[in-house]
Amino acid sequence: MPGPSASKKPRASSDWPFLACLAVIGGTYLVLIVAMVLADLAFTSPSEIWGALSRREIQYAIKLSLFSCTAAALLSILVGIPLGYLLSRECFPGKGMIDAIIDIPIVLPPLVIGLSLLILFQVKLGGKSIEEWFQAAGMPVTFQVPSVILAQFAVAAAFAVRTMRVTFDQINPRAEQVALTLGCSRAQAFWRVTLPEARRGVFTAATLAWARSLGEFGPILVFSGATRMRTEVLSTTVFLELSVGSLRAAVAVSLLMIATAVVVLVIVRGFGLQPVFRKGTEP
What we know:
Elements: H1 4-43, H2 46-53, H3 56-89, H4 95-107, H5 110-120, H6 127-136, H7 145-169, H8 174-181, H9 186-197, H10 199-214, H11 218-223, H12 234-243, H13 247-277
Helix pairs in contact: 1-13, 2-13, 3-7, 3-10, 4-7, 7-10, 8-9, 10-13, 12-13
């Protein structure tokens, strides 16, 4: 009677055409991504990239992008932690509806999100009252820096909520239940036990929200505009440079965004995503 090794050999030898076919089909997409990046690098030179990034307008866009993305990421975490915890730990009426509503910014076209924000701040009983209040205080929202942050936050927060829900799903509630039996309130158990265990997920959610904010374009273009030295971020800089025929400057900014995205992905994969999403993790 043949042993286990004898039965495995024919199966292993017959699997390679199937696996090779999968590798070829999937590899075409990888080749496309690498080819696009290499084309951008071949199109310009380091001196042209430095020259474009040294321009006053683009430096302003870089500074505003860093500020707005950080603010949007912090706001996303402020929303993502409580919503992710509630969706993971609690059962309540309307939970499925709330879960679906959170996905709306993810599946909607970006221009629709920007248009909806713009309309919201034009409705008398809606955001227009808030707009008028901020205008009276000398800090208008629409077509100003706050609108950039709000447009980025409207989309990035959904990714933060999803990340935090998965994070809390992977944390065994046993330690929190033990804390409750030892006299902690629900809030104390959350702050002292659950949230410290979720620190990697919080870091991952913040990083993903920051990266998503950096790449946001449609909502910003509609809700904030693309005004030089006022609401210009890196994504709208690419659009503005293309609109005036400055292709090399647009490519230079694109390469900066690609490099930033690669750094963010390395950070997330190395320090956040792998520990958080590994199944079977015990507290």
